[in-house]
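Allow me, if you will, to draw on your knowledge of protein folds for a short while. I have a record of one protein: its chain in single-letter code and its fold written as discrete structure tokens. Kindly check, if you would, that the fold set down in the tokens agrees with what the sequence suggests. Thank you for your consideration; the sequence and its tokens are set out here:
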Amino acid sequence: MSVRNYIFSKTLLKQLVLAASLTVAIIWGALKLLDLYTLHGRGIDVPQLEGLQLEEAQDLLLAHNLRYVINDSIFDTNREKGSIAMQNPEAGTEVKRNRTIYLTTIAVLPEMVPMPDLTDLSRRQAMALLETHGLTVGRIEYKPDIARNVVLEQKYQDGIIEAGAPIAVGTRINLVLGEGVGDNIALVPFVIGMEPEEAARTLISASLNVGEETHFDEDEKKELRVYRQSPDPLNEPVYLQAGSTVDLVYRSADLFDFEAYMEKLLTVPVPNLIGMSPDEVKITLEAMDLVIGDETFKEDIHPDYAIVVRQEPAYDEEERINKGGRVNIWYAPPVEDSESETQNRYTE
């Protein structure tokens, strides 16, 4: 058979069709095998690992055909040692089988830092240096010394701790400060509404210590804030000897509306002063912890013959004003007309 005849023969055509079919079958099979290997169209949702112990996370990842690598470890006294702090990818992310999940755990052993030398530093400088080393101020006490609020000794628990000694991050360091010459008096700060750590820092910055700590809700100790303090400087300034204590009562912000509570504590209703004399205005505002602002008298009338015809902010049953806020007053002579007519006459 000649080449020409073979090219146009049925035999060659059958062989070409067979080869093409075999090629398609091989490609199709390869693609199917690849889909099976990569689980095409069947992703795995990354499970929630944060908060679990490492052993629990290992079992859960194995059950999901996932791998893991611990790429970091952090120290956090507020979370359980050995637990998972962070994960990447996040929980709920869809990934392929055998994907590696990167984990950050809470260190079992605390991070150690060298104790800084605080001697002869001011209280503020000492607090700042402790913070840069991951340490905090515990309690402060005073003893006679000419240098007021200067660090004389640094203590861990009841003993002196030397500079350079290794100490765990987060440790509270007690400070002994000089009380200076004369009375060492501290103004009690208002800490209601603050979180415990913020309240402690505020008191220490004022040369005071946290005293007795109690909980309003014994069974709930999350999202705590200061609910009460004793002594309470809300209505008038309170002074204590430096180094004294302030007792705190905590309440959970999960169970209690602190926003409404703080508004009620720190504000008062706008008073209705219309028709009052200057003396009555003074008594009323002082009783409500408000301050007289600008006083305007029409036609230079004598205060003994004046009544309020306008105030700012204006009286409104729904409005409140911050304690210590100013109220501006306008006075005019009393007339026999109605209150509204008096006010309109004055403002025209």
Notes: The CA atoms of residues 197 and 217 lie 18 Å apart. Confidence is low (pLDDT under 50) at residues 337-348. The chain has eight helices and 21 strands. Residues 3-38 form one domain.
